[in-house]
Amino acid sequence: MPQLPDDLDAVAVRTWCSLALEALGRERAEIDAINVYPIADGDTGTNLYLTLESAAAAVEAVFAAHETGTTAPATADAVRAMAHGALIGARGNSGTILAQLLRGMAGVLADGGDAAHLRLALTRAAAAARQAVAHPVEGTVLTVATAAAEAAQGEEPDLYAVVSSAYEGARAALARTPEQLAVLGRAGVVDAGGRGLVAVLGALVEAVTGQPPVRGSRTGSGKAAAPVDGGPVVGPPAGGVPADGLAVVEGPPECPEDADGGGPAFEVIYLLEARDAQVDRLRTRLDALGDSLVVVGGDGLWHVHVHVDDAGAAVEAGVEAGRPYRIRITHFATESGHDVRVQAEPAQRAVVVVVPGDGLAGLCTEAGATTVIARPGEPPASGELVDAIRRAHAREVVLLPNDAALRHTAAAAAEQARTEGVRVALVPTRAAVQGIAALAVHEPDRGFDEDVVAMTAAAGATRYAELAVAERQSWTMAGICQAGDILGLIDGDVAVIGADVPATARTVLDRMLAAGGELVTLVLGEDVPDALADALEEHVREGYLAVDTVVYRGGHQRAPLLIGVE
C-alpha cells in the first residue's frame, strides 16, 4: 500500500470536495428517484449536489488566492471556506443539514487534521446537525451521520482506519433506515439524504487513500443492503429479495400518503444575518408555523429552511430576527398523492441578471428581470444561476453575469439549462453598469437573436469603472498603493490612486469621458452619501456638454461607487 498521509491538509480537503462533487453528480438522479422523506419532491440528490458545488467553489477560491505563492493554503482556511460555501449555497432540507455537518467538521479540522481530530470532527458534525433540526427523526441522514461518527471511534492512529470505519458505519446505518422510518419501508427505499452522505464519505476515503472505498459484500439475507456499485438501495420488495439482496428502483417510487393527508404548501429558505439570541427566538416562532425546520450556521450568519403554509409569516419572522436575503420560496401542491411544484405556462423570453446589491436587484426586477444577488465574498455558483433560469420559467433566456470572474460559472449554468430544453444566450457583461445598459435595450417582442445582438452591443459600448479601498500595499498599473488608498479601476485595471472618494471619482470620470460619451451611470453603495452623487453630477454637467447622468442606489455592494459611460 502506498504511503498514506498523516493529516488531512488543504490539498486533501480540496480533493475531497472535488471527488464528492463528482460522486453526487453521478448519483444525484438516482438519489432524487428515492427521495420520499420529508417531502417526495425528487430533488434531494440535486440539492446535495448544488450545496457541495458551492462548498467546492469556495475552496477553489481560497486556492486561487494563493496562486502566486509558493505554498498551499492553510488547512484551516480550506475547511472554513468549505463550510462557508456550503452554508451560503445550501439547498433544501438535505443540503442544509449537509452544510451543518461540514461546518461541525470544519470547527475541529481547523485545529488539526490527524486521526484524533477527524474522529472528533465527525462526532461534532453529527451532534451539530441534530441540534440544527427542530425535531430529529431516526432513519434519516442524522442517523447515518451519527453511525459514521460512532464507527470511527477507537484508537486507530491513521486516517485510513478512521475514514474507512466511518464510511462502513454510514453504509450499514443507511441499509437499516427502512426499518427505522415507516415511510421508507413502505416505499422500499433507503433515506435519500443518508445515501448522499455515504457518497460524500466515500469521496473522503478516496481523498485520503487515493483509491475508491472498498465496498462490503452483497447480502442475501432479506434485509436492505448498502450500495455495492453506486446504484439505488432499497429494502426487500413484497415478492422477495433477488439473489444479490438488492432491489433497484428504476424511477421515482410511489409517494406514500402523509398521515394527515398532506403537508405544508411552501418551502421557505433564506440566509439570515442575526445574533444568536435572535435566532433562538426565530426557531421557536418558525417551529410553531410549520415543520421540517432546520437552522444552521453561527457567527452572525445563518441558513434557514422550513416548510410552512404561510410563507409571508416565515419571511417576516426572519425580518424581525435580523436581515434575511437570498430568499427562495417554493410552492408545493398535492396532486393524486404526489407533492409536485406548481408550474404555469412558460413565458417566451426572460432575462436573468447577476447584481452586486439589493438596490440594483430592485431596479432590475422592476424592469422584468430575474435577479441573483452576488454579495461581497459570496459569488453565486452555477447551480444558483441554473435555479434562477428555472425561476424565470421561459423558453428563451438571456443571461447577464455582470462579472468577468463569473464567465465560466455562467457558461456552465447556461449549458445545464440548455440540456433542460431552455434556449440560453450568455451576454458576457463584465460589470453591473453593462448589465443595466443591456437591460435598457431589451425588447422581448423582437426576435431572440436580434434582441441578444442589441443587448450585447449596448453592453459592449459601455465602459465601466469602480472605486475600491486598498487592503494592503501592492504594485498596480498606476503605481504603488498603500493600505487605505482609494483605487479607481477602469475596465478592471487600476488607473487612479487617490486619497479620498470624491477626488478619485472625479479623476476617473475625466479619464473615461476624455474618449467621449453621452450618458454617465453612477451606482452608489450603501454608505455613500447622496451629496457625492450631486457633486459628481454637477462635475459632469459643468465639464461635458450634452452628457446626461443617472444615479442609482446599489445597496449593500462591494464597491462604494460603480461608474458607467455610454
Summarize the structure.
The protein has 566 residues and is of the alpha+beta class. It has helices spanning 10-33, 44-65, 75-89, 92-109, 115-132, 141-151, 159-180, 182-187, 192-209, 276-289, 311-321, 358-366, 382-392, 407-419, 432-440, 448-460, 501-513, 530-543, and strands at 266-273, 290-298, 301-308, 323-335, 338-341, 347-355, 370-373, 394-400, 423-426, 463-469, 474-476, 479-481, 486-490, 493-498, 519-525, 548-555, 561-565.
Description:
With 566 residues, this protein is α+β, with helices and mostly antiparallel strands. 46% of the residues lie in helices and 19% in strands. It has helices spanning 10-33, 44-65, 75-89, 92-109, 115-132, 141-151, 159-180, 182-187, 192-209, 276-289, 311-321, 358-366, 382-392, 407-419, 432-440, 448-460, 501-513, 530-543, and strands at residues 266-273, 290-298, 301-308, 323-335, 338-341, 347-355, 370-373, 394-400, 423-426, 463-469, 474-476, 479-481, 486-490, 493-498, 519-525, 548-555, 561-565. Strands 14-13-10-17-15-16 form a six-stranded mixed β-sheet, sandwiched between helices. It has a five-stranded antiparallel β-sheet with strand order 2-3-1-4-5, with helices on both faces. The protein has a four-stranded parallel β-sheet with strand order 7-6-8-9, with helices on both faces. Strand 8 (394-400), helix 14 (407-419) and strand 9 form a beta-alpha-beta unit. Helix 1 (10-33) runs parallel beside helix 3 (75-89), helix 7 (159-180) packs antiparallel against helix 9 and helix 17 (501-513) runs parallel beside helix 18. The radius of gyration is 26 Å and the shape is globular. Residues 216-261 and 334-343 have low confidence and may be disordered.
